[in-house]
């Protein structure tokens, strides 16, 4: 369906036309690159690398961080990332009730230790980590030193660590013939029993489906394997939104999660920093379907990542983040960006991004609106409105850790939609991605996470457990109506 664009200005129409032309040019370029022989692509890659090294101000010597960053950059998957620091992982598959196969990763033991009976209980406290939009589980472990990687720290602290992945796929993955190809995308959850990834029906999912199926089914699988009664949930960005939604609509799920720690929490973001994009998408979120179709969004990202010299690709990502979100990422080192951005992108459905713009447009954490009204239609008090996620009904303790320079977090609005027991702590000078990859996360973020995990785990322990955790430090508690 083509939306009516009655509220768009001439400037917006110009941006719309430019966007279509750019996407057409990008598609043509992708076809040309696929057809080019390997020696030609390698020649362009070497020229771009030589040019970058000539004009770059980066130090020419190989620092320890650069050596580690190169290993992270070239790691092909989650297992290789873990093996860099001596960790052995397990892979699990979850079948959701609507037929999707999700990949789970597990770190059951400390560095250098190998569990003798894979897939069984360890008797340790269980923690489940979930990534954000356009990401996969690799984002948690692609850091240039182990002490800044939350899963590794938790494993050393004696936790049974699990990492989830959203449903998504390998649709239209770019596969150039050159030797520098890195095929990314979410390699871990790309199957459905009912539809192949080339079908639009495969991609017909939004955050509603993550909340109804992916999160509760993943948690149930983890508890079944570990034989634990409860687990702790740590989400990042959209991984927090999925938990807010899941806990609000599944009362029984609250009995299985002893604490929900939300890093860079996302619920009802105010919008984007790029005014043209923000205005266009809020005026008519379904414009995204015109730009990208009804399957995967930004599927050409793997092409750019494969043909560009990594520092150039990282620079492109940096500029895009500044334009869209006003994130300058000063807390993330250059070497960390180059290493981590190689693992950043993962396929997601266009529908899930449309859902976010519906939330931004209505300033409400709501379910997906299938009955999208034309932007020229004025709604009345009695008009249809999509249901909101009843987040104030969440019983599980909630801890919010957010950057005070994160443009996607409006903490007062968020607290007003959450229960009174919510705890919030601001991280000074932190933006969104800083909470994952910042140079001081081992000092500012990880200790807060570990303390919250211990505090709530001990508070829910049996009477004969030894409780030696200090009271949780509270910056803000939701007392708003």
TrEMBL record:
GO biological process: lipid catabolic process
Xref: Pfam families: Abhydro_lipase
TM regions (residue ranges): 13-36
Record InterPro entries: AB_hydrolase_fold (IPR029058), AB_hydrolase_lipase (IPR006693)
Molecular function terms from GO: hydrolase activity
Domain Partial AB-hydrolase lipase span(s) in chain numbering: 80-142
Keywords: Glycoprotein, Hydrolase, Lipid degradation, Lipid metabolism, Membrane, Signal, Transmembrane, Transmembrane helix
Family affiliation: Belongs to the AB hydrolase superfamily. Lipase family.
Protein name: Partial AB-hydrolase lipase domain-containing protein
Organism, scientific name: Psilocybe cyanescens
Lineage, highest ranks first: Eukaryota, Fungi, Dikarya, Basidiomycota, Agaricomycotina
């Amino acid at each position: 369906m083509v939306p009516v664009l009655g509220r768009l200005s001439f400037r917006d129409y110009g941006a719309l036309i430019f966007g279509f032309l750019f996407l057409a040019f990008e598609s043509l370029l992708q076809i040309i690159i696929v057809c080019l022989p390997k020696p030609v692509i390698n020649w362009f890659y070497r020229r771009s690398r030589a040019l970058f090294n000539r004009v770059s101000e980066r130090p020419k010597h190989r620092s320890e961080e650069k050596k580690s960053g190169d290993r992270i950059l070239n790691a092909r998957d989650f297992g290789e990332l873990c093996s860099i620091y001596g960790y052995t992982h397990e892979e699990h598959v979850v079948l959701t009730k609507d037929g999707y196969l999700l990949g789970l990763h597990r770190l059951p033991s400390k560095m250098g230790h190998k569990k003798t009976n894979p897939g069984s209980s360890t008797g340790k406290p269980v923690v489940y980590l979930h990534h954000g939009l356009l990401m996969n589980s690799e984002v948690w472990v692609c850091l240039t030193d182990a002490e800044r990687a939350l899963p590794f720290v938790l494993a050393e602290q004696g936790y049974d660590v699990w990492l989830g992945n959203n449903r998504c796929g390998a649709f239209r993955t770019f596969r150039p013939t050159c030797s520098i190809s890195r095929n990314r995308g979410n390699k871990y959850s790309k199957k459905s029993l009912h539809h192949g990834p080339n079908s639009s029906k495969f991609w017909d999912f939004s955050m509603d489906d993550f909340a109804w199926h992916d999160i509760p089914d993943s948690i149930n699988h983890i508890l079944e394997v570990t034989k634990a009664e409860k687990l702790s949930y740590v989400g990042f960005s959209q991984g927090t939104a999925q938990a807010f939604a899941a806990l609000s609509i599944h009362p029984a799920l609250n009995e299985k999660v002893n604490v929900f720690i939300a890093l860079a929490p996302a619920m009802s973001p105010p919008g984007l920093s790029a005014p043209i994009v923000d205005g266009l998408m809020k005026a008519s979120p379904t414009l995204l379907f015109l730009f990208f179709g009804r399957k995967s969004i930004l599927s050409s990202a793997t092409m750019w990542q494969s043909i560009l010299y990594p520092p150039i690709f990282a620079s492109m990502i940096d500029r895009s983040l500044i334009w869209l979100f006003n994130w300058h990422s000063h807390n993330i080192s250059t070497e960390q960006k180059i290493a981590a951005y190689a693992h950043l992108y993962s396929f997601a459905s266009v529908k899930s991004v449309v859902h976010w713009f519906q939330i931004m447009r209505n300033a409400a954490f709501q379910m997906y609106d299938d009955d999208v009204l034309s932007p020229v239609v004025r709604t009345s008090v009695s008009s249809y409105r999509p249901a909101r996620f009843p987040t104030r009904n969440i019983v599980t303790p909630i801890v919010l850790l957010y950057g005070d320079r994160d443009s996607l977090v409006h903490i007062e609005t968020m607290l007003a939609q959450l229960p009174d027991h919510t705890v919030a702590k601001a991280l000074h000078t932190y933006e969104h991605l800083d909470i994952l990859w910042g140079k001081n996360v081992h000092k500012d973020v990880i200790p807060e996470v570990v303390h919250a995990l211990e505090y709530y785990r001990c508070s829910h322990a049996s009477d004969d457990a030894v409780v030696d955790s200090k009271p949780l430090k509270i910056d803000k508690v939701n007392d708003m109506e």
